[in-house]
């Protein structure tokens, strides 16, 4: 006997859009939905399995018996199976039993909103209803997510940021994290937080990047509503939320998407396009319309139902290049003989077009992309891929390469730090010092620095001044703000006890103050993606390892000067300045407050001698291994003369 009743949420137009790859809200149709039929409450199920012989719902309500609740195949050749099961409620455990040629596969629901945390990993009939309190943020977030706003991102892994001291083996709930995280981010001055994947994943060492439940908030840390509470609290405190999103691949778990109906349904059948050799995972078939609808609907889901402000798209390089991590003969060129995955590029263009059309400039999309793929952040209608920003991986590699060098050798690599100015306006860049740089034997950031303990911290402080004053948005991985000494370990909390040591506390103080400086000084962000916002004063003094540049806002007199002295020597340095202006030091990374040596960065002489193509010059005392920031101000004498001329 079949206990399933005919029912559907799909219209003919839904089916048309699904087949065309243009349905971007499939989460409203697929999955398990609480509905009422003929006055009886229950759950409607629907799943895409076009090559199945039979599909039934199994669960704790029928002792996992695949013969009792058989879904109905739709008549329109869409491959969708659906039906209504009376009497089921939220919390019901279920899977789909998919009968193929000679076997029955037990699959979790690709659209489930919650999953169990055990080996069975069954889906749960759930809801993502939540009474949001972030209306003010949502109405005005376009200002905070704008390319002309300060964007300083704290990247974090929810499972290892902080744990209960009494039960370190257990995760904190999303709500417990909110209680600790929100005030910390506010104090530290970060504008946004980026969560490494919160979607359900089976294997902790994957850090969340091997996703099985694309529509489910991982139940490691609580319910969907608990995650929504965390995001809501962040928004109510004016902190934006970026979610890592992984449309590049998925694991081969038996209950996941792999061979979902016994065939290569979600993944590409050709292993040259469908199997990832590095991650031993499966690559989505971007040429299949139904798969595109699934993925873009998933992106819209997190922006819609969870109020995410941005999606950072993982592993874009692997998506766009057919030869990524493959030897000759292991990949097939595209129709033009090149190595670009044209189907993946088209998918990413459609994804960006869809989410920006739906949410406008309220949201951002950010590509984690390490190659020089052209026009990644240019509009789709101009031939670009359409991302809002791209990670500036070249800056990260060159900067860390330089700071790993002995001070005496830096003059030979001086232009590693100037090279980014050759291309920094080719795309809209986010400067990342991410989790990838502090794992797999790469050492923590503080231990990448050269020298004794004092020099290591001084170097890292100077690096942060360089980072925060360089054009582009910023991203810093958790723990790097206070000099975590060990590599990141996903199994345990950060080493917060290090803040008992003044030198670690000093580094944290610097990151706090420079975050607030970045937010307060419009010269650092108004033109951060425009060439008129930057000017070199001294880019070639390799012998002294000194760099000097200006950052400029939209107002003519809104100018900051940044001076980096990347040797342990105190220098008296001559710098060219415009006539009629003076400068004041507003940040010195060598300050005692930051764990520095306390050498004062002071201007001790001003002359009419031309220097650096400027009409006048000043002499300044440069602390060792330091970054200093100066603010331009009009001379009082100059202001007085202008006032007299105006009165005349």
Automatic annotation (TrEMBL):
<dbReference type="InterPro" id="IPR006407">
    <property type="entry name" value="GlgB"/>
</dbReference>
<feature type="active site" description="Nucleophile">
    <location>
        <position position="314"/>
    </location>
</feature>
<dbReference type="GO" id="GO:0003844">
    <property type="term" value="F:1,4-alpha-glucan branching enzyme activity"/>
</dbReference>
<keyword id="KW-0328">Glycosyltransferase</keyword>
<comment type="similarity">
    <text>Belongs to the glycosyl hydrolase 13 family. GlgB subfamily.</text>
</comment>
<dbReference type="Pfam" id="PF02922">
    <property type="entry name" value="CBM_48"/>
</dbReference>
<dbReference type="InterPro" id="IPR006047">
    <property type="entry name" value="GH13_cat_dom"/>
</dbReference>
<keyword id="KW-0320">Glycogen biosynthesis</keyword>
<dbReference type="InterPro" id="IPR014756">
    <property type="entry name" value="Ig_E-set"/>
</dbReference>
<dbReference type="InterPro" id="IPR006048">
    <property type="entry name" value="A-amylase/branching_C"/>
</dbReference>
<dbReference type="Pfam" id="PF00128">
    <property type="entry name" value="Alpha-amylase"/>
</dbReference>
<dbReference type="InterPro" id="IPR017853">
    <property type="entry name" value="GH"/>
</dbReference>
<dbReference type="InterPro" id="IPR013780">
    <property type="entry name" value="Glyco_hydro_b"/>
</dbReference>
<feature type="active site" description="Proton donor">
    <location>
        <position position="368"/>
    </location>
</feature>
<dbReference type="InterPro" id="IPR004193">
    <property type="entry name" value="Glyco_hydro_13_N"/>
</dbReference>
<comment type="subunit">
    <text>Monomer.</text>
</comment>
<feature type="domain" description="Glycosyl hydrolase family 13 catalytic">
    <location>
        <begin position="165"/>
        <end position="512"/>
    </location>
</feature>
<protein>
    <recommendedName>
        <fullName>1,4-alpha-glucan branching enzyme GlgB</fullName>
        <ecNumber>2.4.1.18</ecNumber>
    </recommendedName>
</protein>
<dbReference type="InterPro" id="IPR013783">
    <property type="entry name" value="Ig-like_fold"/>
</dbReference>
<comment type="pathway">
    <text>Glycan biosynthesis; glycogen biosynthesis.</text>
</comment>
<dbReference type="InterPro" id="IPR044143">
    <property type="entry name" value="GlgB_N_E_set_prok"/>
</dbReference>
<comment type="function">
    <text>Catalyzes the formation of the alpha-1,6-glucosidic linkages in glycogen by scission of a 1,4-alpha-linked oligosaccharide from growing alpha-1,4-glucan chains and the subsequent attachment of the oligosaccharide to the alpha-1,6 position.</text>
</comment>
<keyword id="KW-0119">Carbohydrate metabolism</keyword>
<keyword id="KW-0321">Glycogen metabolism</keyword>
<keyword id="KW-0808">Transferase</keyword>
<dbReference type="Pfam" id="PF02806">
    <property type="entry name" value="Alpha-amylase_C"/>
</dbReference>
<dbReference type="InterPro" id="IPR037439">
    <property type="entry name" value="Branching_enzy"/>
</dbReference>
